[in-house]
Each structure stands twice: as C-alpha cells, then as structure tokens.
Structure prediction request, 211 residues.
Amino acid sequence: MNATELAHAFANPPSSPTVAGFVPSEHIRRLNMTVDVDRLRAAALAVMDTAEDIGDGFHIRNVTRRPGQEAPGPEDLSGRYWMRNSEYTEEPHDPLVDESAYSEIYPEFHNTYVAEVIDELRARMPIGRARLLGKASYNCNSWHRDPEPRIHIPIVTNPGALFVINHHVTHLPADGSVYFTDTRAYHTALNGGAEERLSLVAAIALPATDL
Prediction:
C-alpha cells in the first residue's frame, strides 16, 4: 500500500450501518413467509428453562420428535455434521439422522404458536427436526456442514449475532422473517453481542445421505 492508497483508505471509512441488516447470497435468502415474532418469542421463552445445555454456550429445546419418543437423545440434539481437522481433512461427527422420522410435535407445544409455525412450514416443505436453539453471548459455533438445508427464524437477536455461510457474512434480524439457509455449505453462527440469541431452526427432511 502506497501513500496515495493509504490516504484514500483513511478518507473513505467502511460503512457501519449496513452491517446491521440482512444481505442475501445464493446459499441464504429470505422466504415469502412471515411469522408473528412477538407471539413466537413468548411461546419459545416459556419453555427455554427446560432446554438442554450441551456446552459451548449452546442451549437446545427440541420441538419435533419421532413417534412416541418421550425425551430427546444425543442424536436428536445434534446429528451428523462434518468438520475439517488441522490437516484440512474432512471428518464426520455424530450419527446420521433420518429427518423424515421427526413427524410429531412434543405435546407441550400443542396448541401453541410454535406448533402453528411448524404447521405452516410443513404446508410448504417437508420438515424434520425442529429445535429452539439458544446461543450465549460472545460465543461461536463450529465451522461445519450439515446433510440438509435448514430454515432459520430468528426470535431474539442483536446486531452482533451473525450467520456465516461459505464465507458470506450477514445478520438475520428478528423481525418475523423466515430464512432458507443451505447449510450443506460450510457455515457457523456467532453471537458477538451482549445478549443471548434464540432461533427456531428446522431441518428440511431430504433423504438421508452420508456424503
């Protein structure tokens, strides 16, 4: 960088207001569907005290289940994902999950707005595991990929909560929007804000493949 380039950089600081909004990419886009985020927030927060704390600042409350299942097991909380090790070799983690098996909603969500949202999603696409996912402040998920795309509905968020997918970074406002995220690409969610982030995340029940 020469003196002219340095002077130009100082004279043209980066824009900061734009990073507080949503910027789409080929792997993440806003759907033509909205929810009543106030109703969804009230229904979700009413059950998050029973969420599973699986470490690393991750709190999970399963919404859908396999028929007759009384409580979620480890494979229901997580499921198959892939990461690259320090040698850049891709490795599978956790069992592969058949998303199409999660056909029931846990009874405690019956007659709640969470169930209404799941029903509305199912009218549009096959939905498997649906989970309420909480992420602690100043915290980040692993850099990984999943077997199937996911639907994301932000419920509680802040401008420091960001979604990164194939190196595209954006914020997902909790304004009632519903997002398609092709999490078959490498991605992470990070919460760089001071408040916990909470989202409803539903897997699209594509045929299970161990790719």
Q: What stands out?
A: DSSP finds four helices and 15 strands in the chain.
